[in-house]
Specification:
alpha+beta; Alpha-Beta Plaits; four-stranded antiparallel β-sheet; 8 helices; elongated
Length: 203
C-alpha cells in the first residue's frame, strides 16, 4: 500500500476529517502567520532578502492551508483550526521576533543627577554616547543619547541601573544610521554576522 492509497483510505474517515485535517490546517496556519510576523519585522528593519524569503514560504504555506479549507467548506472543525492557527501564530511570531536582536535602536536617558559616571561607563564599554543639558519640570536635567544594536539593549539597561537607577529612559527603533559617525566600533557589526547569532545571551 503506497502513500496515496493510505491518504485515500483515511481521507474519508471521521478521524481524518475531524482531527488530522484540522490539525494539519492549524499547524500550517501557525507556521505561515509566524513567518508573516517575522517578515513584517524584516521589512521594517530593512532586511530585504530575509523579507523576500519569508514572504515566499509564508504564501506557499498559506495556499496549502486555504486550499484544504476550500475543499472542506462543510467541515466547521477546519474553520476553528484556521482561526486558532492565526491567533496562535500571532502570539508565537511576536514572541520570536522579540527574541530576535535585529536592527538598531536609539536609547535616550534623562536624569536630574550628574551623568558623568554613566557617560564614562558607556565609553568604557565602547558605546558611542552624546550628553546634553536640558530643563525638566523640576529643574535641570542631563539627556544622554546612545545608538546601539538591539542585541545590546539589555547590557545598556544594566549600565543605567548600575550608575543611575532613578533615570528615565526610552528606546526607539531606527530605520537607518550612519554607523561610522555615531556608534562605537564594537557596535558596527550589523551585517551578516548578526544574522548568524540573532538571539541574546540566555534567551
Amino acid at each position: 500500500m503506497n502513500a496515496m492509497t493510505i491518504f485515500e483510505t483515511f481521507s474519508g474517515s471521521p478521524l481524518f476529517s475531524w482531527l488530522l485535517l484540522p490539525l494539519f490546517i492549524l499547524c500550517a496556519r501557525i507556521c505561515d502567520v509566524t513567518i508573516g510576523t517575522a517578515r513584517v519585522i524584516f521589512v521594517s528593519r530593512g532586511y530585504r532578502v530575509l523579507a523576500a524569503c519569508a514572504g515566499f514560504f509564508e504564501v506557499l504555506i498559506w495556499l496549502t492551508a486555504i486550499g484544504q479549507i476550500m475543499t472542506n467548506l462543510t467541515n466547521p472543525a477546519c474553520y476553528v483550526a484556521y482561526a486558532s492557527g492565526f491567533a496562535i501564530g500571532n502570539f508565537i511570531g511576536i514572541t520570536l521576533t522579540e527574541k530576535l536582536s535585529l536592527g538598531v535602536v536609539l536609547i535616550r536617558i534623562i536624569t536630574n543627577q550628574n551623568a558623568s559616571k554613566l557617560v564614562e561607563a558607556f565609553k568604557q564599554s565602547e558605546y558611542g554616547v552624546t550628553c546634553i543639558e536640558g530643563t525638566g519640570a523640576y529643574g535641570s536635567v542631563n539627556i544622554v543619547f546612545t545608538v546601539v544594536p538591539r542585541r545590546n539593549v539589555t547590557e545598556i539597561i544594566d549600565i543605567i541601573k548600575t550608575f543611575n537607577p532613578q533615570a528615565f529612559y526610552t528606546i526607539e527603533e531606527i530605520g537607518s544610521v550612519s554607523a561610522s559617525r555615531f556608534m562605537a566600533p564594537r557596535s558596527l557589526a550589523l551585517g551578516p554576522a548578526v544574522l548568524l547569532r540573532p538571539f541574546r545571551k540566555g534567551k
